[in-house]
Automatic annotation (TrEMBL):
It comes from Pieris macdunnoughi. This is Reverse transcriptase domain-containing protein. PANTHER family: REVERSE TRANSCRIPTASES. Residues 202-266 form the Reverse transcriptase domain. One of its GO terms (biological process) is DNA biosynthetic process. The lineage of its organism: Eukaryota, Metazoa, Ecdysozoa, Arthropoda, Hexapoda. Pfam families: RVT_1.
Length: 280
């Protein structure tokens, strides 16, 4: 329930203005239910403690009881090929990598995919014009650095968001010079593109001997993510005003929930109009 409350609270910040009132009501309701469950849990825990004290449970009995309830670390499972062959740990890792991160080849791609590839290659081969790219400012850098959650896992270099934030705050001109030089040259450091991939198990699967039972997450260096966010913010400033109001995917403060809310609202309004016309 705690995770659900945190999710609903986060949705308030990301909700579109038309849906914000509904989202706030959902959050307050979930928060109230969560507090009630906490009070019940406290009372039940106290009753359980009193019963154990009555039964004269020793200190070590309590420790062993907690240990028994602790989940054991699940062992890595070797992958199983379609022909029934069980792979070794090294082969399993290779099989996962090939399945979750297939090579981007031209073989078997559709006409639309080929068209996108050719247009991307044409853009990459164009000469970069620095006149259209004003240099990043100290204000942009400060806002982006402050937006990072220090609890997020770092990339390969091990530098967390708070470490990077303190280093940049000590002398912002160093990072700004680096970022602006990359912007002028149209270059993004390859080192900042290298991710540490963590493979996580999808919950409630019958078996974990197939790649589809896993999902990968990539941990990129925070220094690269800072520059990436500054670029994205500028792109959003140019692109979002030109987008349709009915565009819900990949737009800040919009998502599938907003699309469903707008659709439901429209249906209810139409039903209300039909009912009023019939009553007349």
């Amino acid at each position: 329930m705690k995770k659900d409350v945190a999710t609903k609270k986060r949705r308030i910040r990301c909700a579109a203005p038309a849906r914000r009132t509904v989202v706030i009501e959902e959050y307050l309701k979930a928060k109230h239910n969560y507090k009630e469950e906490i009070e019940k849990a406290v009372i039940n825990s106290w009753k359980s403690f009193c019963r154990r004290a009555r039964d004269r449970e020793s200190l070590w009995d309590g420790i062993y009881r907690v240990i028994k309830r602790t989940n054991e670390r699940k062992k890595d499972q070797n992958m199983l090929k379609k022909d029934g062959r069980v792979l070794t740990p090294e082969e399993s890792a290779q099989y996962l990598a090939e399945t979750l991160f297939p090579e981007d080849t031209k073989k078997g791609e559709s006409r639309e995919h080929s068209d996108i590839r050719s247009r991307a290659e044409k853009i990459n081969n164009m000469e970069h014009n620095a006149n259209y790219d004003p240099l990043f400012t100290h204000t942009e850098l400060t806002e982006i650095v402050a937006s990072f959650n220090p609890k997020k896992a770092p990339g390969e270099d091990g530098f967390t968001a708070d470490i990077c934030g303190h280093a940049i705050s000590a002398n912002p001109s160093i990072y700004l010079t680096l970022a602006n030089k990359c912007l002028t040259l149209g270059y993004f450091p390859a080192r900042w593109k290298k991710a540490t991939v963590i493979i996580l198990r999808k919950p409630d699967r019958e078996a974990y001997d197939q790649p589809k039972a896993y999902r990968p997450i990539g941990l990129l260096p925070v220094l690269g993510k800072i520059m990436e966010k500054m670029i994205v913010k500028r792109l959003n400033w140019h692109l979002i005003p030109r987008m349709s109001e009915r565009q819900y995917g990949f737009v800040p403060q919009k998502g599938t929930e907003d699309a469903l809310y707008t659709q439901t609202k429209h249906i209810r309004e139409e039903i209300g109009t039909l009912v009023n016309n019939r009553n007349k």
